[in-house]
Design goal:
It contains 22 helices and 32 strands. It is of the alpha+beta class and about 750 residues long. One of its GO terms (molecular function) is calcium ion binding.
Length: about 750
């Protein structure tokens, strides 16, 4: 809450939003329609509908909005700039893959009120503590269920609410709780009484049992009892005493308990649901790895055909796709360049019907957004189909727009024996493309400006038929000169690379070629990747922008494993899971056995490497909390089950699941233990997925969370679930008890 204790509802900008405004919603130059927008009483939900007619309306929550852009800061509003002045325009940008909402107000004052109001509401949502968030969540439900808006809720309304909340409860039990909460015996609950009802409803026996095990009197945890719990169950070791003091200060709601250094059940439950109680080691969420090793020693978050928002044949090419990828921590983006009709190079998926955008606009977007999510270098992977003239235009745009940000010379002028580190390249953009010479050579004037495609990578083409005959392609000197540490070359074989290749030479492999090499020459591939970068891209037949499993490529140390970021699903969950650590900076240090040029490591025979130590992972899946409804049909309630998958070296791939629970998405209890053996923990990812069991058809996805095995905190932990799009869906979570031990 703000220091003055003022209510956000009293803010003048928020008041304008609550009163409502008629704004123009703009989708294109030809699609512009009036919509009435207003902020609902909960100060969280924005409601809108077309004019005043009809019943249909839409809503979204402030928590879904990532940012507000003022003026003409989207492709749509730029295209209509002559029609709508900048001071009337603003764009709501959503988390995940949801498209922007471009709006035009009637007056500059109204636009300003919405821009500032939404920003204040976003700030408030981000700065709420656990208790405020829980209270807000309860109030939201009250508002939703209080159909006649009289500030009270009768038993019938409460029953409707329970259905909405995904809970199947027999009438007697519900009535019993209702009567207990209805202190005034008025037959209805006001908001405070409803909060009490909700607390009774969400009382968690499984948390209470753990609390009881460590509490001397069953009422409270003394400081030393909490310390014992942290040391015995949570494996916090020597820091348990300091941590116990900090947790009481941070999560105990009762001031008098805080003073006496004790923790109540409420405080204990809040701790377990917090960041410290989560499955992910808090220290690993921050930048914690050594960033001073050569680039080839890191996995690098990478996007394929970054300009596409949809499929590979008809989809829209968009600058927004670059913004979304860069904001997710992506550090290698791709540009496909073709000659434009007016001398300006264009970006699109060649020989397809995808729309076209200007190369210079892509580079301007890169300049603006490259380092918003991470300071570490961005690699611009250029697939160049332009003639020499427009290549020179590209070189001019790169130099002019990016300026010093573009790295165009060797860092120390020396012939590099190894690639520079992410630390040394902070704030720099590296161009990956073909080059006429080597970066350490002074260009000999007699040198030809032709480069054989034998030397360059195979261009990706959406229609991979017979490969064209090798031909000479002309390369612009100016463009060639901008390539330093990422010179694209054709890959022959590992032996040739070992004896001839330079560390700055990079080759691209289609997923199929990479898979074949990984299978037949795993150790050679791992060694190659200790010194050189390799880029993997999806097969040309994946025209629907589906993805391959990146884990197979990480298993042999490939750094730039390019995925279609626009496509939600398992493969992007793995990518998000791996790169969630280390400050989401887009670089993750490979395990030591993948950084040693003489390594013996093979993903197929992990037991042959030095330091081989398999681990047992035991996961007791205890319960779930407030899982979202999948089917919005009246009265439908989920039958949830939990599936745990291990991704890693082939021998570690595994999947186990709990039985499903009938009709309970609110507080299902499984109490089921799943056991796994992990041979290469350093490469393993663990994915928790909750599904709605369906006898007749495929199970529906409810939520998931994926993380590296090495980032797991053992003990009693909550797993905060994410939507298909990778966005938090609070308060949906799983409660688990995890133990990790060495195999006897």
């Amino acid at each position: 809450m703000d220091p003055e204790g003022s209510r956000i509802e009293d803010d003048p900008d928020v008041k304008v939003m609550m009163a409502g405004s008629t704004l123009k919603k703009v989708k294109s130059r030809s699609w512009k329609k009036q919509r009435h927008f207003r902020l609902l009483e909960d100060a969280v939900t924005i409601w809108y509908k077309s004019r005043w007619a009809g019943k249909g309306h839409s809503t979204f929550s402030i928590s879904e909005v990532e940012a507000v852009r003022e003026g003409h800061q989207s492709e749509v509003l730029q295209s209509t700039a002559e029609e709508f002045p900048a001071e009337l325009c603003f764009t709501l940008v959503f988390h995940g893959r949801q498209g922007n909402l471009d709006l035009v107000a009637k007056t500059p004052e109204e636009a300003k009120a919405w821009i500032e109001g939404v920003r204040k509401l976003i700030h408030k949502a981000q700065t709420m503590d656990e208790k405020e968030r829980q209270d807000q969540w309860i109030r939201d439900w009250f508002q939703k269920a209080d159909k006649n808006k009289d500030g009270k809720m009768n038993f019938k309304e409460v029953q409707t609410l329970l259905k909405m909340m995904n809970v199947e409860m027999n009438e007697d039990h519900a009535l019993n709780l209702f009567t207990k909460a209805d202190k005034s015996e008025s037959g209805s609950l006001e908001i405070e009484q409803f909060v009490h009802f909700y607390k009774m409803l969400t009382q968690r026996d499984e948390v209470w049992k753990v609390f009881q095990d460590y509490s001397g009197d069953g009422e409270k945890l003394l400081l030393e009892e909490l310390e014992t719990f942290l040391s015995m169950e949570q494996h916090e070791g020597g820091q348990s005493y300091q941590l116990a003091k900090m947790l009481i200060d941070r999560y105990e709601p009762s001031e008098s308990a805080k003073k006496q250094r004790i923790m109540s059940l409420d405080g204990f439950q809040m701790y377990l649901c917090s960041q410290e109680g989560s499955i992910f080691k808090p220290k690993h969420l921050d930048l914690y790895q050594d960033m001073s090793q050569p680039l080839s020693h890191y996995f690098i978050s990478s996007s394929h055909n970054t300009y596409l928002l949809e499929d590979q044949l008809l989809g829209q090419s968009s600058l927004e796709a670059y913004i979304k990828a860069l904001k997710r921590g992506c550090r290698c983006v791709e540009v496909d360049c073709w000659d434009g009709s007016d001398g300006e190079p264009i970006v699109y998926h060649g020989h397809t019907f995808t729309s076209k955008i200007l190369f210079r606009d892509v580079i301007s977007t890169l300049k603006e957004y490259a380092f918003k999510a991470s300071d570490f270098p961005v690699i611009l992977s250029l697939e160049n189909h332009c003639g020499v003239e427009q290549q020179t235009v590209m070189a001019q745009h790169l130099s002019k727009i990016l300026g010093d940000t573009l790295l165009t010379t060797l860092l120390d002028g020396q012939v590099p024996q190894q690639l520079p580190s992410p630390q040394e390249l902070k704030g720099k953009i590296l161009l990956k493309a073909k080059k006429l010479n080597n970066p350490e050579d002074c260009l000999d004037e007699t040198q030809t400006d032709e480069v054989s495609d034998e030397e360059a990578e195979d261009a990706e083409s959406p229609t991979k038929g017979n490969p064209p005959a090798r031909k000479k392609s002309k390369l612009s000197r100016e463009l060639s000169d901008l390539v330093v540490y990422c010179k694209s070359v054709h890959f022959r074989d590992f032996e040739h690379a070992r004896s001839h290749a330079k560390c700055y030479e990079i080759s691209s492999f289609s997923e199929n070629k990479a898979q074949a090499r990984a299978k037949d020459e795993g150790t050679d591939f791992v060694r190659y990747n200790t010194r050189q970068l390799s880029r993997i891209y999806p097969d040309g037949l994946r025209t629907n922008s589906s993805n391959y499993n990146p884990q197979e490529m990480w298993n042999v140390g490939c750094q730039i494993v390019a995925l279609n970021f626009q496509t939600a699903g398992l493969e992007m969950d793995l990518n998000d899971g791996l790169f969630r650590q280390n400050g989401c900076c887009g670089y993750v240090l490979k395990p030591d056995f993948m950084r040693d040029g003489n390594t013996q490591f093979s993903p197929d025979k992990p037991e042959e490497r030095q330091g081989y130590k398999p681990l047992r992972l035991s996961i007791q899946v205890i319960s779930g909390q407030q899982l979202p409804k999948v089917n919005q049909k009246e009265g439908s309630i989920v039958d949830p089950l939990v599936r745990v998958q291990i991704f890693g070296v082939p021998g570690d791939q595994d999947m186990k699941e709990t039985p499903y629970i009938n009709n309970n998405g609110f507080n299902p209890v499984w109490d089921e233990t799943l056991n796994f053996v992990i041979h290469t923990p350093e490469l393993a990812l663990v994915r928790f997925e909750v599904e709605d069991h369906d006898r007749a058809s495929r199970n529906d996805f409810i939520g998931q969370f994926t993380l590296p095995f090495m980032c797991i905190q053992a003990g009693y932990r909550h797993i905060h679930l994410l939507s298909k799009d990778g966005i938090a869906i609070p308060p949906a979570s799983l409660f688990v008890n995890i133990s990790i031990s060495e195999l006897p």
